[in-house]
Amino acid sequence: MNQIDVVGMGPGSREQMTQQAWKALEESEVIVGYTVYTELIKELLPDKEYRTTPMRREVERCRIAFEEAKKGRRVAMVCSGDAGVYGMAGLMLELGEAYPEVSVKVVPGVTAALAGGALLGAPLVHDFAVISLSDLLTPWEKIEKRLRYGALADLALCIYNPSSKKRADYLKRACKILLEVMETERVCGLAYQIGREGEGWEILTLGELKERQVDMFTTVFVGNSQTRKLHGQMVTPRGYSVEK
Amino acid sequence: MNQIDVVGMGPGSREQMTQQAWKALEESEVIVGYTVYTELIKELLPDKEYRTTPMRREVERCRIAFEEAKKGRRVAMVCSGDAGVYGMAGLMLELGEAYPEVSVKVVPGVTAALAGGALLGAPLVHDFAVISLSDLLTPWEKIEKRLRYGALADLALCIYNPSSKKRADYLKRACKILLEVMETERVCGLAYQIGREGEGWEILTLGELKERQVDMFTTVFVGNSQTRKLHGQMVTPRGYSVEK
Description:
By secondary structure, chain A is of the alpha/beta class. Chain A is built from 8 helices and 13 strands. Chain A has helices spanning about 20-25, 35-45, 60-70, 90-95, 110-120, 140-150, 170-180, 205-210, and strands at about 1-10, 30-35, 50-55, 75-80, 100-105, 120, 130, 155-160, 185-190, 200-205, 220, 230, 235. The first copy, chain A, has a 5-stranded parallel beta sheet with strand order 3-2-4-1-5, sandwiched between helices. A 5-stranded mixed beta sheet of chain A has the order 7-8-11-9-10, sandwiched between helices. A 3-stranded mixed beta sheet of chain A has the order 6-13-12. Chain A is elongated, with a radius of gyration of 19 Å. The interface between A and B is large, with 77 and 77 residues.
């Protein structure tokens, strides 16, 4: 049976890929993906055939993958981070119903919540929620509701897609909602360009975060009520009794 | 400066480790961890020195790591899944305040939410929450609150530590809370022994899940209101317009 691997490549560098992900890319003949991500892989595997579509052309991108697989070619569809967290795994499985002769295998990877969390320290070491601020496919009212309930539940939050050109004020709007429940001094963190050139991170308060302009390559972390800044890192205690 | 790598080794197999995690283990002299996880690594790297402590001896385990690092030895502390999701990264950073001569680096890995999600299909492809049912360190009332708000927020849920010998009915109690908000037919999934011998998964309804006894090697997935069973897999649509 023809197979497509939907591969989570992690933050971007080879060393943050799993061995399974790397193998799937190496064994493929055609690598399909969003242009920004295929460029990262092209440097590592220049001899593959690459098929790309720009953002918002995801359905077309999937169909290209299925059409190539139908021809009997081994296909890898690449996603940044994890294939199953705002990645292409879902859409591929939805569209796959029309291609019964192709089997779709999901290969997991390190998503930005984990890679960014590791840079900052341990912000998500207890219960947490992952919420995207992109309202391209989700009504803003639903996003607001999720932020509000996440705050009421005292979950640490990891916020994906905090900004874009058309949504410059979304992070500010999100912070205002969180501040209905959380205190201004709540420990927050930013991780940007994770695993790529220019990688960095910063710890700040929720009040400061509200006034901050971030770009689309930034992942935002909001601590729970117990999260602390501990020698320069963001740490959410799990509740172990620690005698210092 | 002496360094400890806190390494997320993924679900268990070598091929699901990142290259960075594998390198950290290979370069270490001493590998510290919970016995079950160090056994998995010992098969791959038999020539290291291993130091283990059983469950609930986490503080002691961390102190062993710091004492070895203080002697100038290269130490890796291993965690299953991701080091920062119910892993040792938090406690290591908390205790690290007493060891200013040792730097702690967190190496992320594929946590069960991602690896189990990949087996099931794409249950967490949109906003989701990760909640542990273990009340060893968290009051049960807080866990209940998080489940309830997660359900009200229409987040997909990934439930860690759904059961143990002493907590045989916790998953049932959790399902009862979810059923206050969700319908009996809500699509749910189980992934067990992820990345290890006996690996498997199953899709069932929330009503069925309530009556199911699972073990501590199982991760539970509860879909959001849009999650569907699509040719045998669990898929949460992101909302793309798909013409079939």
